[in-house]
Amino acid sequence: MLQSVEARTGVAVGGRWAESTAFEIDAAVQAAADASDVFAASTASARAALLRALADALEADREALVAIADRESALGLPRLNGELDRTSFQLRGFAEVLERGTAHAVIDDPAVDGAPPMGRPRLTRVRVPVGPVAMFSASNFPFAFSVLGGDTASALAAGCPVVVKGHPAHPELSRRTASIAQEVVRAQDLPAGVFQFVQGGSIEVGVTLVQSPAIAAVAFTGSFKGGTALAKVAAERPRPIPFYGELGSVNPLVVLPAALEGNGAELAVALAGSICLGAGQFCTSPGVILVPNDAAGDSFVKALADALRPMQPHAMLSAAIRATFERGVAQWRSAPQLKPLVGDTADATSPAPQPFLAEVSAADFIASHALHEEAFGCAALVVRVASTKEIIEVLKAIGGSLTVTLWGAEAETDETRRLVRAATQVAGRVLFKGVPTGVAVTAAQHHGGPFPASTQPFTTSVGYAALDRFLRPVALQDAPSWLIERKGVPC
Ligand code: NAP
């Protein structure tokens, strides 16, 4: 059973719902498959109208949606209102992208007379929607990475029906958002299969959905554990399908000596705020801070600890997420190679988590694989580094991350070039200013990165390039004129 729970108190409130049965999942996937051809052949302007209507409907129900989201997530009204704004902005953004013709862009190479390799037939490269997409919501963004979040927006923009699996941590919000979406689809005169919804609080629902033969791709945002388990299911199907998994990340932030000349204290305060933002429940939360092993570095670490210590994060998303956080911090607390700086005593009974910060040498960090894993919550490790070479070794040990931040790389030197090269090799986004929490929705955005940040590092789940995940290229050779005249719109 699914139960709506008040995140701040753990008390069950509101409704209780049964998980979707195998029969219901099959019916949802079948409806999506039945709608697939009609929706694929819809015009860009019809899909733009759908996306705008979804944005309008979300905003029209803002008050009720945000109140439920706050109750089920404890994320607070300002943050949730902002997240709803981002979600509707994103839906409208994809509508604009569609109207610019991006989804149906064509590459047309005219025929050339003569023998190959110079001579060739006419080739017209178009893109076709892959078909029904299974979409897995994350718990930590009840709007932006949930039922009508970026994965749903980009799949619908591409012309693919979606079957959303709601997250069990916000079941009431998921159901209400899904019913808004279904109403909009109906009002737009589209087949109901364009948007389908299933729910579950056990792994069977997700596994059954991914195994459904008519599902053509999976979009997943969530934990490393869940993402890798479902990626395996997608790969082991008789017909394997693409699994676009955006997983957790430790988001290393490198503080170079140049950054500490003058404004180290200010940077420490900004960083402490980023570590505690949303109680640290951001996939882009800075989890590993590389600091020079010198006197300026000592002062920065002290300023960071002083800024972090009094912070009072809000309650976490669920009791299970809080318990995992406390377990992870307890392990760090007892690790002999770590020197605790903040949160060195446990208080698992308090309603909200305490920030945690500890220091470790580069050598010990590199040697301990457990320290490279995301601790989802307001915890970070300071890694003391003595050279550019050591920074690069730490980044390589981490391996793959949504972001790397380089503070103090303004001057072009051999060292900053080497660091930028190392950062771009492990991250999908490299920042030179600011903090990694906050991911702008724009055409140039890349939210992904080498495994384990993403299972498909060439794709992004945020920004308008997210559309490309659901459009498969097809080369039409010597196509008849009626097909060319469709200008890339599938028939
Ligand atoms: P989660 O527990 O992995 O849940 C995500 C979805 O996967 C849920 O629908 C969950 O359903 C399902 N699931 C999990 N394990 C499964 C399994 N073994 N088999 C089948 N389904 C499974 O993640 P979360 O707690 O919602 O989100 C927190 C994590 O997401 C953090 O690690 C965070 O960094 C990451 N995240 C990443 C991004 C990004 O853009 N890369 C964004 C936000 C969050 P059930 O609970 O019903 O099993």
TrEMBL record:
Note the InterPro entries from the entry: Ald_DH/histidinol_DH, Ald_DH_C, Ald_DH_N, Aldehyde_DH_dom, Aldehyde_DH_Superfamily, ALDH_KGSADH
Pfam families tied to this protein: Aldedh
Which species does the entry assign this protein to? Variovorax robiniae
The UniProt keywords, alphabetically, are: Oxidoreductase
Span of domain Aldehyde dehydrogenase: 14-412
| Name of the protein this chain belongs to | Aldehyde dehydrogenase (NADP(+))
Q: Which PANTHER family match?
A: ALDEHYDE DEHYDROGENASE-RELATED, SUCCINATE-SEMIALDEHYDE DEHYDROGENASE, MITOCHONDRIAL
Q: What is the lineage of its organism?
A: Bacteria, Pseudomonadati, Pseudomonadota, Betaproteobacteria, Burkholderiales
